[in-house]
Amino acid sequence: MRKTQIRNIAIIAHVDHGKTTLVDGMLKQSGTFKAHQKVEDRVMDSMDLEKERGITIAAKNTAISYNNIKINIVDTPGHADFGGEVERSLNLVDGVLLLVDSSEGPLPQTRFVLKKALDKNLPVILIINKIDRPDSRIQQVVNEVYDLFIDLDANEEQIEFPIVYTNAKSGIAKINLEDSSTTLEPLFQLVINHIKGPIADDSKTPQFLVTSLDYDSYVGQVAIGRLDNGVLKLNQNYCLCGKDENKYNNKLSACYTFNGLEKIKVNQLESGDIIAIAGIDGINIGDTLTDNEEPKPLPRISIDEPTLSMYFHVNDGPFSGQEGKFLTSRNLLERLKKETLRNVSLNIKETEKPNIIEVSGRGELQMAVLIETMRREGYELMVSKPEVIVKTENNIKKEPMEKVFLDLSEEHVGTITEKLSIRKGRMLNLQNNGFGRVLLEFIVPSRGLIGFRNQFLTETKGSGIMNSLFDGYLEWVGNIPQRTNGVLIADRKGKITGYASLAMSDRGELFVDVGTEVYPGMIIGERNRAGDIDVNITKEKKLTNMRSSTSEATVTLRAVKKLSLDQCIEFIGEDELLEITPKNIRLRKRELDVNKRHSLRKKNKEN
Questions:
Q1: Which one of 178, 426, 527, 535 has the minimum C-beta count within 10 Å?
Q2: pTM given for the model
Q3: Looking at the 3D structure of the chain, how many domains does it have?
Q4: Contact, 447 vs 399, CB < 8 A?
């Protein structure tokens, strides 16, 4: 039977097209907040990193009431690195709102999230957002979306999608551009009429599929998901169907439904709704809670495989243990295992060395967010350069490939094409719209893109836009040259002096300020030519009792280049590590001893 009083929808889009802002408007106009309640912008982006970066990292759900109909809304990330969140979220819903910017049109992640929705045969409502932009090209964008649907082999029913035009920031939705609507009322009506309620039966065997996990300091672990059939009650025994075994006689300590941003405690949960439960130990994403006598598990959630891996090391540098609270391999392993409970797209594997753990994920951004989160929690660790995960099929070595979409000025086309061709990139499409901007499409090995984003922004003077999308596995393309310049390495312990920094100005660009403590083997800057060089960056000016009219003149040093965590991950080479502590991020050589480094270099040349 179909539940007419419930609607379950997800909002999907490319990063920064306005999903979370639209959810803000829907929450405000549905009466979820009180009249005088102060609400911050992008209220769904509750994590500190989400607020700082301005992107959604974890999928979150909320619920609003419209004309006595409960609408569960899932806000999903728009970046492919967090694709695991999108795939899980689509298991909860019966339809999607596809949000597209009125100027930028459908971008790579639009394709990624839409393909996932079409694969699940979910009905789509197209929202053209930011209609107030002066550079909007609404009709062209609508045509581009139709082309995208055809390109993704959508069936006739899926292509017949309704369109609504919105300005999410102002809370306006229109079915036709000339309409005089000043609210989101047309969008609410469209959701109710076009997306049907869930098919669920309260009288059947309970089936609750866990799609995400939360933690509450009062009730412990909280499992969130959709109750497909049956009802769940407090103080009743249920069976938990895990990946390898069934656990019987589990009782719920708390049952919740969602209303706005809050979880509401109830005694009984009905089917078709997105709910949360607490009180069951050892519950994981993909498990099914079902009847204790006749268990009927649902199919487990399938997630795309990781394409990139990094090695997490225990920090063994000279400054280890000075700033962090959690330092040991046991601390690292426990924290990473805890992360995999919430984030199903991450895999961890213990290596032969007890102080090194291999972590696999979807991309550099996902790894950077994990590392930054751990850093803020007080962990000290070191990480290696990201490596792509290679497959062997029929004795043929294959590596992940990515489609890269570039929007840049005409003057930079030649330089960027040359840079990508060195990284084994192949141009698929070039489109010049005649406005001085060119759209390029390349297919590039994933390892060729490691460290390229930084170079791309430098070459285009910050004016270029780059997006990439995973495009499957192809045959190994051979060696790809990475960083061409060498690095400046501190050769002794001490503090960086202004005198030594001035002497380094013609050798390259420094990454660390005057007065920073350094140790032998620590990378302090990028050399302006190939090959590494060890330098004395702690050298002080010799004191003398002879006076000179010019010797005390103030020296102006060139500003240091401060690298963010993302830039550091892109920058490091294969023989280098990134040392991360709660207060500092340092680049260092894997082997700190200069003589041992020279020996290793000689051996590698001989081999």
A1: 178
A2: 0.78
A3: 5
A4: yes
